Amino acid sequence: MRRKTKLIHGGISEDPATGAVSFPIYQVSTYKQEGVGGHKGFEYSRTGNPTRNALEELIKDLEGGEAGFAFGSGMAAMTAVMMLFNSGDHVILTDDVYGGSFRVMTKVLNRLGIDSTFVDTTDLENIKREIRANTKAIHLETPTNPLLKITDIKAVAKLAKEHNLLTIVDNTFSTPYWQNPIELGADIVLHSATKYLGGHSDVVAGLAVVNSKELAEELHFIQNSTGGILGPQDSWLLIRGMRTLGIRLEEMESNTAAIVAFLQGHSAVKKVFYPGLETHPNHELAKRQTRGFGGMVSFDVGSAENADRLLSKVKYFTLAESLGAVESLISVPARMTHASIPAERRAELGITDGLVRISVGLEDIEDLLEDLAQALE
Ligand SMILES: *Cc1c(COP(=O)(O)O)cnc(C)c1O
């Protein structure tokens, strides 16, 4: 099965009981047993629900893993995965990770004794330097948010294996349509399905895929024990959104290429960050590792004032957090998605006050370009 076909026919794409071509919403908490323990595979919906199961099978197929798991948000998925570790363990993460990932590691999981170090994972030497006796995993986000740096998943996974560490990849920005971390050697893939997978700004959800039976058993135990599951309605919405992921991403990427070209030629724009640009430091790696450069682009307009002026003038770019949906969104990471990262650290990372991030949607490209042109005047 090719990729667009798999989005539609992968997983459990129809209901075996009725033949319904849209998998039904099993709005149910418990299941009748024919004698104690005599059930049809479902006992209680925290442990397993048919609609959630259909979604979990779909993401498993798309990522090419052993098992998939659906959670109430991307952060719930990440937290559950971090529960694989114990007090005293250490995890190395990409330095410009999603603000919420930084926060859960440094403000919540640290209290449970899970220690973390953040490094620029685009350079393997930085990771090597931080591997300690108690290091258990390397968590990568690639491309990163908002600077769109690319880490070599294959090289990191190889290093991780040599040291008996797990490789975890947050694949939110690329999705399995563009990038398959498990094929490149990763052990666990994470998603904020709130973004491209859902794709319509109408559901908050998280997914995890693991590549081995042992990890599948452990993560199912954690999912069932801690209970941060996705409900059947949201599971259904996510399946429905994922069916059009391929055509959405193709169109978004072509819109993004046009916007990048426009921004590059504009005098009010100091710098454009996009892995599809030949001048991007990780361009060759991006070409090798992913099938698409994505629909996110960041650019620097020089100051917070310039950014505010732009934000107040755009009509078709909605000022909002989040990304990956049909409507184009615009944000200033320093004061929005990355506000939970301390100012000094933001400065170190290059997340300046004039940095603007856009998530390119599915509007007509002519409208998007005209809108940016008038707003940047
Ligand atoms: C949004 C996001 C998350 C968190 O996901 P939620 O669904 O908001 O909990 C994690 N990683 C990345 C890269 C994200 O963009």
**Morphology call:** globular
Indicate the low-confidence ranges by residue numbers.
none
**How many strands in all?**
12
Query: Would you list the SSEs in sequence order as H and E?
Result: HHEHEHEHEHEHEEHHHEHEHEEHEH
How many H/I helical runs? Answer: 14
Mean pLDDT figure: 96
Kindly give the count of domains. 2
CATH homologous superfamily assignment of the largest domain: Type I PLP-dependent aspartate aminotransferase-like (Major domain)
* Straight-line distance between termini: 48 Å
Strand coverage percent: 5-15%
Largest sheet geometry? 7 strands, mixed
By CATH, the architecture of the largest domain is named 3-Layer(aba) Sandwich
Bound molecules: pyridoxal-5'-phosphate
The chain-level structural class is alpha/beta
Reading side by side through the largest sheet, how are the strands ordered? 1-7-6-5-4-2-3
Name the helicity range.
Answer: 25-40%
Radius of gyration: 21 Å
CATH topology of the largest domain: Aspartate Aminotransferase, domain 2
Q: Give the CATH level 1 class of the largest domain.
A: Alpha Beta
What are the main properties of this structure?
377 residues, alpha/beta, Aspartate Aminotransferase, domain 2, Aspartate Aminotransferase, domain 1, 2 domains, 5-stranded mixed sheet, 14 helices, binds pyridoxal-5'-phosphate
